[in-house]
Specification:
Elements (H helix, E strand, L loop, with lengths): L55 E5 L19 H12 L7 E5 L2 H5 L8 E2 L13 E9 L2 E6 L18 E4 L3 H8 L8 E3 L2 H9 L5 E5 H11 L3 E6 L9 E7 L5 H13 L2 H9 L10
Parallel strand pairs: 1-2, 1-3, 6-7, 6-8
Antiparallel strand pairs: 4-10, 5-8, 5-9
Helix pairs in contact: 1-6, 1-7
Length: 290
């Protein structure tokens, strides 16, 4: 789900996503980047071969939606991905004024060919197939599952996983979201299974289910664009196995890949990613369920 499909990207109203509750957790150490920094790589600013000398050119799509960006203005540094981009730039020695933003469609970013930017942040999931065409940094965000409901429902306002066990929950067939209903929530009744998320959303509107489980990026889309009274009950804890992660996208074989990965790894180690998730995701309407 998430940015693995371009469909969930459309029409999220930035104004629909404002203040939320507590922190998620930063991306775990990633083994999915296309290149790893080594002792022989110099990441000093003066040694970096960027698209424009002395500048760092960063791309994202247009429009850019909350909570990843705010007011469709990446340069303001507000929103999770905007803040992460500037944090990466800082680790590489670039001041905010040295960062130039450009716009690039999701398709153009993930397609083969030279890119008119140094890296892109655009909720792009790291996959082996995409790594045939482009490089990825280490993962800067680990996708988690979330529970969506409507205001006033039986699970609106619940704060723990235990509170959801008796709820009637649904999910899309074949997804990790559907599996989370039994494996993570431990629902006492069998989940309702739908061919598409749209059908699951309609079932929620018709009050045939109490809640819908989707990944967090999709949850923001559902509550912002598909439901007039939708709310995110909360995020589920990270599950085991290989996590789906978002990574910065670079040219295939880019000389910058190792250094951008090194910067992301440093942001994870020093807790910056965790703090940014708390500020821009948890506090924008997706508290963590305990």
């Amino acid at each position: 789900m998430s940015r693995t499909s371009t469909a969930m990207r459309v029409l999220v109203a930035a104004s629909a996503l404002s203040a939320l509750a507590l922190a998620g957790c930063g991306a775990p150490a990633s083994t999915t980047s296309s290149a790893s920094p080594s002792g022989s790589v110099s990441c000093a600013k003066d040694s970096l071969k960027t698209h424009t000398a002395g500048k760092l050119t960063v791309a994202t799509d247009k429009p850019a939606y909350s909570p990843w960006f705010v007011d469709d203005d990446p340069s303001n540094g507000k929103g999770y991905e905007a803040a992460v981009a500037y944090a990466i730039a800082d680790k590489l020695g670039f001041a905010k004024g040295d960062v130039t933003w450009v716009r690039a469609t999701f398709t153009s970013v993930t397609s083969p060919g030279a890119k008119p930017f140094d890296f892109d942040v655009n909720q792009v999931s790291i996959t082996d197939e995409r790594k045939n065409a482009v490089d990825f940094s280490s993962g800067y965000y680990t996708v988690r599952q979330a529970v969506v409901t409507t205001k006033g429902s039986a699970i609106d306002g619940k704060t723990s996983i235990a509170d959801l066990k008796g709820a009637k929950l649904g999910g899309q067939v074949g997804t990790t979201s559907l599996a989370a209903i039994t494996k993570q929530i431990g629902a006492t009744s069998a989940p309702s299974v739908y061919d598409t998320n749209d059908l699951a959303v309609q079932a929620l509107k018709n009050k045939q289910i109490d809640g819908l489980v989707v990944d967090l990026p999709t949850a923001f889309y559902v509550t912002g664009a598909q439901l007039d009274d939708g709310v995110i009950v909360g995020q589920l804890p990270a599950s085991g196995g290989t996590p789906e992660q978002f990574g910065a996208v670079l040219d295939k074989g880019s000389a910058l890949t190792a250094c951008v990965s090194q910067a992301v790894d440093a942001l994870r180690t020093d807790g910056a990613l965790t703090k940014l998730e708390a500020q821009w995701l948890a506090q924008q309407g997706a508290p963590e369920l305990k």
